[in-house]
């Protein structure tokens, strides 16, 4: 099967400084792709090349077999939606007005929004449980609600592929997990996700493909299960890392630099304390797992 | 943000009342009865043989006051709409229609016309040509550089504006200090006293056409306020839409200079007032800005005609009244663009 999006040997330099160097990746429909890498490794640039914002210095980006730069933005927008990092907006648009912008690629050049557009925007907001905020200004809601607003806009756009730049950044822990739940359930419906993240744990918990970038080069590629290992993470972040499996079967990343103190301490403590610590840690993870199950506040609306 | 429809209705009514009121205001006293009589006379003719009186009223209403009222409405709404469009497009609430150099270019053109051609027609032609030329220059300068398109445009505008301001100084320096220099200075202060019916008709059509064009693009203005990349990902042809927006806004601003000289502050203050009243959604903000701008400039022009026996230049009044307004608006600014 041909990949929906394929990035072939793409290189890109910004002001003479190489940002991406011969990067290739193929993304089939329905896939979750996690782009991992340290700051400045070229993650966001890769997303913007996929969206056709930049022209690669070498190589091509193909969407459905067609070079992305040849696609009119209106056509591309029906296939691929961009969910930017939660940002500050200069003007306080109503949430509904922001979501309704997703209808632009489906309208003729001169247009007015119809009742149906409004209805579509509202149902996307209802799906994410934020329809009660539709008349609130975007600038007056929380970061989590803004991110949901941008996702609702992407849903309204009708695109089946979401390109997301660090979607959980700036969200509190609960909202991070709730957002991941939403991504997961959309992925189960067949939506494709391409997202950058600074949390390898999230890729481990949700599975999918992983692309590790370092200094603009692909250093590791594969399923989250295979690609995220102790050595690959330690290489990627230049940091001693450990990937361990909890008793419930979930794998987690643990940085050695912080935990070595605890390890040292626990080594001098009695073995009794060690098992107690282990139990505590595990129960913590079990709690997260059960949250995934009952889907939380936002998750409930997803099943509609 | 208030309910949209009542606000727009209220402003429209105010504008209608102010326009009728302005017909009655002026040096020559005219009563409401006179206006009624004149209206019925112009429709049915008058049995009482008051031809002479009616002729005088016709002169006052149709040849002297009406052109000024329509001119004020045109200039006020054109400047406000182009200011609003620029603020949305440049995602910056502190931007005014002169951002890309149109006012500096037009001032230079007008001064050039006064010094070298000494005819009102040439002053108007050159003001328009150099206003558009200055904006073209800033767009060309922006093309030379890579990087953030919006930032490059703003920098291009600063350079182009500074360039034409310097050229204006040269023309002022060369001008005859007894006749030409005061004429330039006075003209740059703005005013509607030179407006004739003919000129008004020729200039109003392109202003109205540009305004109509901008109104059809308001959903895109909203998307452009999300930033170029986001707008593009939403399917907006950013380059094309922005070029049309800049062209229409520039055309309108340059034509206001032809009509009334340099009228400052309207294009900055009015969009803020409008945004405070009905929020930032350009679909309703642009028409509301047009109405408020028209009302604001009409009232300012009435002041300029009536307060002293000598007419106060309009540009001075809009600035003097605009500044305290702006201070008040800034206090509440968080509501509009916090």
Description:
The complex is a heterodimer of chains A (304) and B (338). Chain A is globular. In chain A, 42% of the residues lie in helices and 23% in strands. Mean pLDDT of chain A is 86; it is low at 270-304. In chain A, the strands form three sheets. In chain A, strands 6-7-8-3-9-10 form a six-stranded mixed beta sheet, with helices on both faces. A four-stranded antiparallel beta sheet of chain A has the order 2-1-4-5, with helices on one face. A two-stranded antiparallel ribbon of chain A has the order 11-12. The two termini of chain A are 32 Å apart. By secondary structure, chain A is an alpha/beta fold. Chain B starts with a helix and ends with a helix. In chain B, 78% of the residues lie in helices and 0% in strands. By secondary structure, chain B is an all-alpha fold. In chain B, helix 4 (102-116) runs parallel beside helix 11 (238-260), helix 5 (120-144) packs antiparallel against helix 11 (238-260) and helix 13 packs across helix 14 (314-331). Chain B has a single domain (70-331), classed as ABC transporter involved in vitamin B12 uptake, BtuC.
**Hey, which two chains have the biggest interface?**
A-B, 38 and 31 residues
CATH homologous superfamily heading of chain B:
ABC transporter involved in vitamin B12 uptake, BtuC
With strands numbered from the N-terminus, the spatial order across the biggest sheet of chain A is 6-7-8-3-9-10
Strand content of chain A: 15-25%
Please tally the β strands of chain A and state the result: 12
Q: Might you state the CATH topology name of chain B?
A: ABC transporter involved in vitamin B12 uptake, BtuC
DSSP E strands of chain B, number: 0
Q: What is the level-2 CATH architecture name of chain B? A: Orthogonal Bundle
The number of distinct helices of chain B, counting runs of at least 4 residues, comes to 15
State the helical fraction of chain B: over 70%
Strand content of chain B: under 5%
Radius of gyration of chain A: 21 Å
Radius of gyration of chain B: 21 Å
Compressed to H and E, one letter per element, the order of chain A equals EEEHEEHEHHHEHEHEEHHEEHHH
What's the end-to-end separation of chain A, in Å?
A: 32 Å
Biggest sheet architecture of chain A = 6 strands, mixed
């Amino acid at each position: 099967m041909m990949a929906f999006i394929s990035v072939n040997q793409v290189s890109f330099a910004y002001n003479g400084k190489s940002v991406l160097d011969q990067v290739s990746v193929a993304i089939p429909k329905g896939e979750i792709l996690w782009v991992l890498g340290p700051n400045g490794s070229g993650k966001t640039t890769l997303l913007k090349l996929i969206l056709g914002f930049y022209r690669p210095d070498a190589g091509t980006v193909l969407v459905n077999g067609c070079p992305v730069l040849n696609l009119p933005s209106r056509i591309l927008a029906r296939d691929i939606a961009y969910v930017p990092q939660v940002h500050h907006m200069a003007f306080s648009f109503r949430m509904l007005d922001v979501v309704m912008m997703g209808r632009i690629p489906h309208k003729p050049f001169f247009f007015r929004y119809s009742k149906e557009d409004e209805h579509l925007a509202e149902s996307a907001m209802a799906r994410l449980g934020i329809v009660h905020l539709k008349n609130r200004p975007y600038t007056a809601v929380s970061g989590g609600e803004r991110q949901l607003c941008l996702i609702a806009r992407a849903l309204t756009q009708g695109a089946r592929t979401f390109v997301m730049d660090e979607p959980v950044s700036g969200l509190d822990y609960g909202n991070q997990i709730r957002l991941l739940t939403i991504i997961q359930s959309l992925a189960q419906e067949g939506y494709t996700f391409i997202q950058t993240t600074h949390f390898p744990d999230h890729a481990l918990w949700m599975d999918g493909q992983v692309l590790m970038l370092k200094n603009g080069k692909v250093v590791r590629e594969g399923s989250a299960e295979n690609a995220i290992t102790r050595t690959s993470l330690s290489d990627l972040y230049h940091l001693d890392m450990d990937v361990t499996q909890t008793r419930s079967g979930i794998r987690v990343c643990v940085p050695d630099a912080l935990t070595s103190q605890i390890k040292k301490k626990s080594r001098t403590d009695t073995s009794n304390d060690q098992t107690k610590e282990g139990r505590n840690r595990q129960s913590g993870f079990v709690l997260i797992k059960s949250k995934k199950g009952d889907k939380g506040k936002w998750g409930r609306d997803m099943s509609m | 943000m208030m309910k949209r429809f009542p606000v727009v209705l209220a402003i429209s009514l105010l504008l209608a009342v102010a326009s009728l009121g302005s017909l009655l205001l002026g040096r020559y006293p005219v009563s409401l009865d006179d206006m009624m009589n004149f209206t019925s006379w112009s429709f049915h003719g008058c049995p009482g043989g008051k031809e002479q009186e009616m002729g005088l009223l016709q002169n006052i209403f149709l040849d002297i006051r009406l052109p000024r009222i329509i001119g004020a409405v045109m200039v006020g709404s054109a400047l406000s709409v182009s200011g609003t469009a620029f603020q949305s497009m440049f995602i910056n609430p502190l931007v005014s229609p002169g951002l890309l150099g149109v006012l500096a270019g037009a001032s230079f053109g007008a001064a050039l016309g006064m010094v070298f051609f000494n005819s009102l027609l040439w002053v108007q032609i050159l003001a328009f040509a150099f206003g558009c030329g200055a904006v073209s220059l800033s767009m060309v300068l922006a093309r030379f550089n890579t990087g953030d398109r919006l930032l490059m445009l703003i920098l291009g505008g600063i350079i182009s504006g500074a360039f034409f301001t310097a050229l204006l100084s040269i023309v002022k320096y060369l001008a005859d200090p007894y006749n030409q220099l005061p004429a330039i200075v006075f003209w740059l202060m703005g005013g509607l006293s030179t407006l004739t019916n003919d000129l008004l008709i020729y200039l109003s059509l392109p202003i109205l056409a540009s305004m109509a064009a901008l109104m059809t693009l308001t959903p895109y203005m909203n998307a452009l306020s999300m930033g170029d990349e986001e707008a593009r990902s939403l399917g907006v042809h950013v380059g094309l839409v922005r070029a049309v927006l800049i062209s229409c806004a520039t055309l309108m601003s340059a034509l206001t200079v032809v009509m009334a000289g340099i009228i400052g502050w309207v294009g900055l203050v009015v969009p803020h007032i409008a945004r405070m009243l009905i929020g930032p959604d350009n679909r309703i903000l642009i028409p509301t800005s047009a109405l408020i701008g028209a009302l604001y400039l009409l009232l300012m022009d009435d002041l300029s005609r009536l307060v002293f026996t000598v007419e106060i230049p309009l540009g001075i009044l809009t600035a003097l009244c605009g500044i305290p307004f702006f201070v008040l608006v800034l206090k509440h600014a968080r509501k509009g663009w916090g």
